[in-house]
Amino acid sequence: MELAEALAQLQAWCDQSRGEPIEIAPGVALAFQSRSVFSEASVRQIEMQLGFALPFAYFEFMATVGESTLFGWSPSGGGPFFYHPEQVIDVTQTWNEAEPGMGRFCFVGEHRSMGDMMGFCLDHPAPNFDIFCHEYPPDDYVTVSDELNSWRDFGSYIVGMVASFGKDTL
């Protein structure tokens, strides 16, 4: 499966679900909701504010699915929750101010199943997307992710979620 196909499938599920559970595979009923999509210019604001180049796949995701709840059991819970660009900036800056050393992260959402932040490590070579476990101190995220070999390419992460019908979201 290619990224374009995965994004088209997510968009179709969002259009069909509108926040209510739908059956996406035999015995698999989940909720999807796209609240708004964003232009390249809107997403570039994240890069300008945070000084970080986002991957092409993230731009494509935001233009097709955008601010969303995916693979959840309700419009607000259970799975990946992606922020709108202003929220990405606000949440990232809030973390940066609250936690020393957090300036190296760009948080694009949260995984509401576990309460973990999702995002990019700004100074880590690609792949640099991960779901940062709430059980680890923020200063240890990079070390733990390196040890667990959990870094992902954002586009591959999206494709994996869709291909596994949401089983591969963490």
Summarize the helices and strands and which ones pair or pack.
Layout (H helix, E strand, L loop, with lengths): L2 H15 L4 E4 L2 E9 L3 H11 L5 H9 L2 E6 L7 E3 L2 H14 L6 E7 L4 E6 L7 E4 L8 H8 L5 H10 L7
Helix pairs in contact: 1-3, 1-6, 2-4
Classify the helix fraction into a percent range. 25-40%
Note the overall shape. globular
The residue-averaged pLDDT reads 92
* Weakly predicted, low-confidence segments: none
CATH architecture: 3-Layer(aba) Sandwich
Top-tier CATH class:
Alpha Beta
Q: What integer value in Å does the Rg equal?
A: 15 Å
Distance between the termini: 19 Å
Q: Mind summarizing the main beta sheet?
A: 7 strands, antiparallel
Order of helical and strand elements: HEEHHEEHEEEHH
Number of strands: 7
Read across the widest sheet, the strand sequence of neighbours is 1-2-3-4-5-6-7
The structural domain count equals 1
CATH topology (level 3) name: SMI1/KNR4-like
Count of DSSP helices? 6
Q: Structural class of the helices, strands and pairings? A: alpha+beta
Strand content: 15-25%
